């Protein structure tokens, strides 16, 4: 099962000279579960609020704020995990 902080996310951007850089390399900060959906986990890997996407390396992380929908000119990359076992079903 995917647990909080167990998905690696690498964010790239560009420095002042236009050179590609790694802005962030670490655990995905936006991992959520819902007690009403046992076994379900949602991970926002990246979200954009506009297009074209700014790549200066100083923009705030758009996954820090929970959003249920993608902006009209934006994009969203996420992963979901649903437990295959139904915890409400008894094993008789």
Summarize the structure.
By secondary structure, the protein is mainly beta. Helix content is 0%, strand content 36%.
Key attributes of the depicted protein:
single chain, 92 residues, 5 strands, 36% strand
Written account of the structure:
The protein contains no helices and 5 strands. The protein is an all-beta fold and 92 residues long. The chain has one domain. The strands form 2 sheets. The chain has a 3-stranded antiparallel sheet with strand order 3-4-5, with no helix packed on it. It is elongated and about 50 Å long. The model has no long low-confidence stretch (mean pLDDT 75).
Radius of gyration: 17 Å
Q: How far is it from the N-terminal to the C-terminal residue, by CA?
A: 24 Å
Question: What number of domains?
Answer: 1
Largest sheet: 3 strands, antiparallel
Helix content: under 10%
Mean pLDDT: 75
Shape designation: elongated
State the low-pLDDT regions, or none.
none
Helical segment tally?
0
Secondary-structure map:
Layout: E1 8-14, E2 20-27, E3 31-33, E4 41-48, E5 75-81
Antiparallel strand pairs: 1-2, 3-4, 4-5
């Amino acid at each position: 099962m995917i647990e909080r902080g167990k998905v690696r996310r690498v964010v790239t951007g560009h420095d002042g000279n236009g050179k590609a850089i790694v802005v962030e390399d670490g655990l995905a900060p936006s991992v959520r579960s819902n007690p009403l959906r046992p076994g379900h986990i949602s991970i926002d890997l990246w979200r954009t609020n506009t297009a074209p996407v700014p790549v200066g390396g100083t923009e705030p992380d758009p996954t820090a704020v929970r959003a249920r929908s993608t902006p009209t000119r934006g994009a969203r990359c996420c992963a979901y995990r649903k437990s295959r076992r139904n915890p409400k079903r008894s094993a008789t």
